Amino acid sequence: MSKLKEFALFLGCLIPYHFPEMxxxxxxVFNKYDYGxxxxxxxGCCPDPVxxxxxxxxxxxxxxxxxxxxxxxxxxxxxxxxxxxxxxxxTVKYHLEHDEKLFDKVNEVLGxxxxxxxxxxxxxxxxxxxxxxxGKERIKKDIVKELTGLRVGIHYGxxxxxxxxxMQMDNPEDPQKLDEMITLLGATSVQYEGKMDCCGSxxxxxREELGYEMGKNKLLTIHDRGVDCMALVCPCCYQQFDWRQxxxxxxxxxxxxxxxxILSYEELLALAIGFKPEELGFKFHRVKAxxxxxxxxxxx
Length: 300
What we know:
Layout: E1 5-10, H1 14-18, H2 20-32, E2 35-39, H3 51-55, H4 57-74, E3 78-80, H5 83-98, H6 100-111, E4 123-125, H7 126-142, E5 151-154, H8 164-167, H9 177-184, E6 188-189, H10 208-224, E7 229-232, H11 235-243, H12 245-251, E8 262-264, H13 265-272, H14 290-297
Parallel strand pairs: 1-2, 1-3, 3-4, 5-6, 5-7, 7-8
Helix pairs in contact: 2-13, 4-5, 4-6, 5-6, 7-9, 10-12
């Protein structure tokens, strides 16, 4: 059967090297809804939307434009599961659309390796397609396992919604779309103070203690609100809260006396529309989601 639409899939660095569970769930969901992915051969890091952009705008834009030009040659739009990659590509696209001199300089750089950036390729986040194209009505019809009783603390992260002028994903100060999609599955989106605070992942690169403290503070806050798990859509944030949670616990043993499972939205969606836990990548989670799965499926 032919696919409804195909995308050039840009996985970035973190997901293929560290978090296959995020990729597995996304592939299951998108395949169910007749979307196809084609691999982007020869891509590099997006690159990171924070460090290199601050240090050298031309290099940052040139590296991103090179990646985009690969999808351009495939005649496909880009879909990424990573909020950081999403911000990089969307921001570079914006800069090159609004700065003719920068556009020319970037193409001068790319010309040295036989490439050209045209700007025709569109950039999408996986959650953006789930919300805008697959849509609530279609998902609601497909729910076979409602997540009733599951209390979820949502973490939007920074890169999905900011800079808002460019991203235009949701209200940057009070986003609601991920809340809506969690509620659609039958779960409860638990509101908490500091919901839009940064996870601290990038901060750990230069001020490690501060970065860990930021992660600790959010974990404490959502734990106090009685959540069963955290849901997010960003592998960098996932790295902070799942991968580093044992390290945060080790640094603050008197405060972090609990564990909070961290799930991507696609994992929760996959469970709700009928995929079994063993079909997904829960074995790769640092903080195991056993209690979350038991709450969804009961003791069976």
